[in-house]
Design goal:
Layout lengths: L3 H4 L6 H32 L6 H4 L5 H46 L1 H4 L10 H44 L1 H18 L3 H27 L1 H6 L3 H51 L6 H59 L14 H5 L9 E9 L5 E10 L3 E7 L5 H8 L7 E6 L2 E2 L5 H7 E5 L7 E2 H5 L8 H10 L3 H6 L6 E2 L8 H13 L5 E5 L7 H14 L4 E5 L11 E6 L2 E6 L1 H7 L2 H17 L6 H4 L33
Parallel strand pairs: 3-10, 3-11, 6-9, 9-10
Antiparallel strand pairs: 1-2, 1-4, 4-5, 7-8, 11-12
The chain binds adenosine-5'-triphosphate.
The site of adenosine-5'-triphosphate has 12 residues, from α13.
Length: 654
């Protein structure tokens, strides 16, 4: 029941768990003394004798009341300190574990590894662990282990309290306490198997439900929703059955342990009555034995109840430990590959930034990003990037543009350390990208995408999800920069609610809030991957100049389809089929007559049409028609005229 793997997890603090258990045991001891004093004190009122070591505390009613109050105060104090310690322990552990799992989620090698249990994608397994898993591991340390410690200490308490009252009763209760785990665990192996089955089904149903919900539109379009609903209801029925089996198992354990408790309490009471039948204190002692024994068994009974949760916690804790070790191994391997292998040359251990730099990334120290003959192919062999060379200085606004599928997001993901292995070399702040640990990317880069998650909570909790405690002034500043201040002020300010996934905001407002959140990080690099795709034109302009401004102190890389948004960018890279085909500032590219110029003129024309109230749909304005892969590069021949809306063929009927 004590797992070494769990003890090594970040935030795990066995000492605190033991402290909680000890405090609870001291509280229980105080409570049992209260029972003793109350019963014998009451007996004395009716002229019944009390043992000499109890009688001194209940010489008169006032003394008895004072002692009872003192014991109640000790009990309350113990409970309060134990609760506070448990809260601190689970808070710290939850933060440390979540952060650690976040690094695993971020780890490209792990995300690309084989499928998890039950066909789950590795990231889905990690996401489950970071919610359910973290919760249950935290309660293992803050509830289960303390209950275990308290149960063990209660044997000592039983010896201290009951043996002096009646040796036989004390012995029976202690034997009962030792026998209880065996009675509760009689069907243990079967129940562990049920537990494991239950967890698998739980994960499976959860993931399937989530997938179905995300893909509901697609399921409907393909008339697959009914079949999926059928499958979900079958899976849910299976889950319900294992849940019932699990509850039945828990009930069996509790019945087994209750049986032992009843037998022990009855035997102890009867033994006291029998052995002290000639003693004037006999009856009162028997009452005390009965009541105190029930209290002595309480922690152990609670432990039986918690055993199931403890089993789950151990399994999930082991999975978390495994995810961590996988990350440690892969990042070490990647780093050594990058140092030794040809795929990622140029990296030497001393090229990795110093810990001081990691702890306090500073735009002035940051030396930029550069790539030499960088190529990347996805695991299925698709060559998404080919032979890219560029040099991005520590500050400036750079834009990646190009048709859909040209490789912009792939390049952004690669620069954010999410895609490996690559060929050629790419250095971030002087160190080969493949050798950088995930933590370093988090320090250096802020990646904001168009569909970043917003949490159920408030504006403040969304801007500061890690609870770093930014000042109201800092939060207000970023809301102002993203043109959200009036809106948020009108809704009640920083503590106004944000519904699930930002449902009470428009798409553009959600994106602006995500950008505001990113701005708070003050990182040396910002990557905005279609971060403003749903933002209206008016705000798009504000954000474009915000990014230009941000580029004066950081390295800003924006990926966008809307070329008007990068007019002031220091350099624009035009990608086509994974290659940089044009680069320069806006005016240079627009006057070059190449692919960029073509797309700019087309967009400009469509935007003007819309501005004049003519037909083309707004969605069309932000998307380029994609050049067929077989078509030659536009720089090699006269630019073909791109199809306008009126020239596009009408969609054929299904
Ligand atoms: N996981 C993957 N496995 C295989 N191929 C992929 C994968 N992800 C993307 N691709 C392919 O890589 C190419 C580049 O994709 P990428 O997402 O980088 O394009 P993009 O320029 O960002 O497109 P968009 O503007 O539509 O977002 C595309 O042809 C895409 O189909």
């Amino acid at each position: 029941m004590i797992s070494k793997d769990l003890l090594k997890l970040p935030g795990a603090d066995l000492r605190r768990s033991i402290t909680i258990g000890v405090l609870q045991a001291v509280g229980a001891l105080a409570e049992i003394f209260m029972i003793l004093l109350a019963i014998f004190g009451l007996g004395q009122l009716f002229g019944l004798a009390a043992p000499i070591w109890v009688a001194v505390f209940v010489t008169d009613p006032l003394t008895a009341i004072i002692w009872l109050l003192a014991l109640a105060a000790i009990k309350c104090l113990c409970v309060m300190v134990a609760n506070q310690t448990a809260l601190t322990l689970s808070g710290r552990m939850s933060e440390a574990l979540s952060q650690d799992l976040y690094l695993s989620l971020f780890d490209p090698t792990q995300a690309a590894s084989a499928q998890g249990d039950e066909g789950r994608k590795p990231n889905q397994s990690l996401a489950m662990l970071s919610t359910e898993g973290v919760k249950s591991v935290c309660s293992y340390f803050s509830t289960f282990l303390p209950a275990l410690v308290q149960s063990l200490l209660m044997i000592v308490v039983a010896a201290l309290v009951l043996l002096p009252l009646n040796w036989a009763a004390g012995l029976i209760v202690i034997l009962g306490m030792l026998a209880l785990p065996f009675a509760a665990n009689m069907t243990r192996s079967k129940e562990v198997a049920t537990q494991v089955e239950h967890m698998k089904k739980y994960d499976h149903v959860g993931v399937r439900f989530e997938e179905a919900l995300r893909g509901l539109n697609t399921l409907k379009i393909f008339h697959a929703d009914e079949r999926e609903a059928q499958q979900l209801s079958e899976d849910s029925e299976g889950f319900r059955k294992t849940t019932m089996a699990l509850l039945a198992g828990q009930l069996r354990s509790l019945i087994g342990s209750d049986g032992v408790i009843y037998i022990a309490v009855i035997l102890a009471t009867v033994a006291t009555i029998f052995l002290q039948r000639h003693n004037p204190m006999g009856m009162m002692t028997a009452v005390v034995v009965a009541v105190a024994s029930v209290r002595l068994f309480t922690p152990e009974r609670q432990l039986v109840y918690l055993t199931h949760a403890g089993t789950v916690a151990i399994k999930q804790g082991k999975a978390i430990a495994q995810a961590r070790s996988l990350r440690t191994t892969t990042s070490t391997t990647t780093a050594s590959n990058a140092t030794e292998g040809s795929a990622a040359p140029a990296s030497a251990p001393d090229a990795v930034p110093s810990p001081a730099a990691s702890a306090a990334p500073n735009a002035h120290l940051f030396s930029g990003i550069s790539a030499e003959h960088l190529s990347f192919a996805y695991p299925n062999g698709f060559q998404a990037l080919s032979d890219l060379s560029f040099n991005l200085p520590p500050t400036g606004h750079f834009a990646l543009v190009g048709a859909s599928g040209s490789g912009k997001s792939t390049l952004a993901s690669l620069l954010a350390g999410r895609l490996t292995p690559y060929e050629g070399s790419v250095t971030v702040d002087g160190a080969e990208l493949a050798s950088l640990p995930p933590e370093r990317f988090i320090d250096l880069e802020t990646v904001v995408t168009g569909n970043d998650h917003l949490f159920t909570g408030t504006v403040r909790t969304n801007l500061d999800p890690a609870g770093l405690g930014y000042s109201d002034e800092a939060l207000t500043q970023v809301l102002l920069q993203t043109d959200l201040l009036d809106l948020i002020a009108g809704r009640g300010g920083l503590d106004s609610p944000i519904e699930q996934a930002g449902a009470n905001l428009s798409g553009g407002q959600r994106q602006r809030l995500s950008i505001a959140r990113g701005l708070l990080r003050h990182s040396p690099v910002y990557i905005f991957d279609e971060a403003t795709s749903a933002v209206d034109r008016e705000h798009d302009q504000t954000l474009a100049s915000l990014m230009d401004q941000l580029g004066r102190q950081s390295l800003v890389i924006t990926i966008t389809h809307r070329l008007a948004g990068v007019r002031q960018a220091d350099r624009i890279f035009m990608l086509d089929s994974g290659r940089i085909v044009e680069s320069g500032n806006f005016d240079q590219l627009a006057s070059q007559g190449g692919l960029f110029a073509q797309q700019w003129h087309e967009q400009d024309r469509l935007e003007n049409l819309t501005a004049e109230g003519q037909q083309p749909s707004p969605s069309c304005l932000s998307r380029f028609p994609r050049r067929p892969p077989s078509a030659p590069h536009p720089s090699q021949h006269q630019p073909p005229s791109l199809p306008t809306l009126s020239k596009l063929p009408a969609p054929s009927p299904p």
